[in-house]
Amino acid sequence: MRIREFGWADYDAVVSVWRTAGSDPLPRAELEAKLERDPELFLVASDGTIAGVILGTYDGRRGFILRLAVDPARRREGIATRLVAELERRLKALGCPRINLFVLPDNAAGLAFWRYHGYLPAPDVVCTKPL
Prior knowledge:
By secondary structure, the chain is α+β, with helices and mostly antiparallel strands. It is built from 4 helices and 5 strands. A 5-stranded mixed sheet has the order 1-2-3-4-5, with helices on both faces. A hairpin with a 4-residue loop joins strand 3 (50-58) and strand 4.
């Protein structure tokens, strides 16, 4: 399994992973804007097919893991762990001192995964406003 940067040839396979993992795909235009900022933080796990994907970003102060998805048929192979480790390595190389992420409150398995990897729940209140 190779962890590498996303390329546009991967888009359809990434969309497929997102859908099979239960996430809505991000539109191409949104990804184009993201890739202008920090393309090295959008990673795929591939062994000929895309088995997992992680989307991170860094604003110069904090790193964020925006999405992590692994094909359900490929779970429990360590793919998510490898994707997270590589993204953390890249963020650290950029000078990032802290990584934040969001876990939906009903996602017990997701919360357990992140806690296992050292991410602790914070009592912050998340506010959002669609534009």
